[in-house]
Amino acid sequence: MLKQDVNELLTRTGPGTEMGDLFRRYWLPALLAEELPEDGCPPVRVKLLSERMVAVRDSEGRYGLLDEFCAHRGASLWFGNNEQGGLRCAYHGWKYDVTGACLDVPSEPENSSFYRKVKLTSYPLVKIGDVLWTYMGDPADQPPLPEFEWCLVPPEQTYTSKRWQESNWLQALEGGIDSSHVSWLHSAGLRNDPLFKGSKGNDYNLNDMRPFFEVVDADGGLFVGVRRNAEEGRYYWRITPWVMPSFTMVPPRGDHPVHGHFWVPIDDENCWVFTFDYLPARALTAAELQAMKDGHGVHNEYVPGTYRPLANKDNDYLMDRAAQRRGETFSGVKGIAIQDASLQESMGPIVDRSRERLVSADSGIIKARRKLLTSAVALRADGTVPPGVDPAHHRVRSASIVLPKERSFLDAARDAVSVIPGVPQTSV
Amino acid sequence: MANRPILANSCALAATAAEARFRIDAKPQTPRASSVVALDDGAMALVRELAGQEWNAARFLGLPDGTPAGEYADLQLRTVDGEAVRLSDELARADFVMMIATEGAGAAAATTIGDACTLRGIMTAGLVVGTNGGSGPALTALRPNARVLLVTGDEQDATELLAAVGA
């Protein structure tokens, strides 16, 4: 349960808000690199943290994220022409480069310098892996570029998708921290999804529906360990890292690719879910890659030509009661991603946490909220740099591992939850 | 046709901010009866602070001075006001027990409390304060006896956890 004012603080990320200031201290996934596929391609509309922008890749291959609206009359630059060296407004021809600097005001005399006095707000846009990342804060505080392993492995070892989720970012993130729903909501997926099935860990998962939880502070966020009974004298541990503000990784299963998410607020009632699968030490097979593109695992199918899931709130998530009765899905909704989205969106655009009834098994969520709150307050009070800004905090992995009962999970799995380039994930 | 919703509130489209005002405004449950037990002197200081805050139905206890190590069939606890309470009596009213430790001294008591809670189907949580990382004697003492463990350097997490579960 949260007081309403705390809920407001944690969920609002627009300019000038406490959480908005916090998010503006991080590099964030802004869009997929595939959305700007070539030099001089059409611009893309992007809304992040309640700010409307256009993403541009100019004729020289430079990326930028600009205020969506022309400084002249406020027309959308999405209609603009991406011509040599900049984006020209379709209304009266004002032209901007990727930094937002105006290059040309055609209505002025030929030798006028007026254009130099016009500059749109812009943010850096940098391609790392399959993702274009932006930093929307004060340039003086801009941190080094992110170093998440999924973006740094060779291209053939990684795949990223994104989907629009019609809810506040925090209730989506909380689903990533909460491991206890997996044995229920996603139980059928453990048996039949091509990117999940067949691992020994699934048996441990399904044989012990009342796991123990352990939440440990980390420099960049938290480690949430969930333990279930394994063979005599041993526990099966699933370890989920959360890196502030909104990055989580799912513990792996067998030799399947490792997956995770980065939740990015679009506005206070919508977010992007960037979803990845990767392998630290081998290429994805053609079958694995095709399964991801077909929407299996933690990915999803789309309304053609969009990043909106095919199963969405307008069609009741294609609810299939017959499949639910047959046990093919637990909730009647197909696919891990949409199972999560359907329930998180069902809470409403911003869930009222003053009415919730948490239990101690929700300790990961409780601790994460506290860490977000204290970080946002400290940033506002004295500029304290929040956890997760330092790229060293990004070099974490999820892990699944069987350990003797007497071993501390984090001590025993220290290497397993650290990035060691080229070394395979620790997985059961 | 019979499966198609005919009103906005009979389908997923009801998950809007406007529809939220039609949610039934009633508390779904009575407050949890929580017992918070300090397992050592450091934890007792924190428990005394917690006891001074406002709670629905939480009680705050510690171990009496000189509690011997070893196995117990039952356990004598004391409230922050010094009142003696048998563990079995305390658990007769509780449906949630949170043990707090800052060191390993209360390991035997943690085992007794954990076993008694398991026997009665009472949910347990452990808060290890001041331990950096996933090891240490306090953590070792609590791990087998708490279904949920929170390891933290922030004492305020005790308040947050109790408030979140409606203690």
How would you describe this protein?
- With 428 residues, chain A is an alpha+beta fold.
- Chain A is built from twelve helices and 19 strands.
- In chain A, strands 12, 13, 14, 15, 16, 17, 18 and 19 form an eight-stranded antiparallel sheet that branches. In chain A, strands 2-3-4-9 form a four-stranded antiparallel sheet, with no helix packed on it. Chain A has a four-stranded antiparallel sheet with strand order 5-6-7-8, with no helix packed on it.
- In chain A, 53% of the residues are buried.
- Chain B is α/β, with parallel strands linked by helices and 167 residues long.
- Helix content of chain B is 28%, strand content 21%.
- Chain B contains five helices and seven strands, in the order E-H-E-E-E-H-E-H-E-H-E-H.
- In chain B, a hairpin with a 4-residue loop joins strand 3 and strand 4.
- The radius of gyration of chain B is 20 Å and the shape is elongated.
- The interface between A and B is large, with 43 and 43 residues.
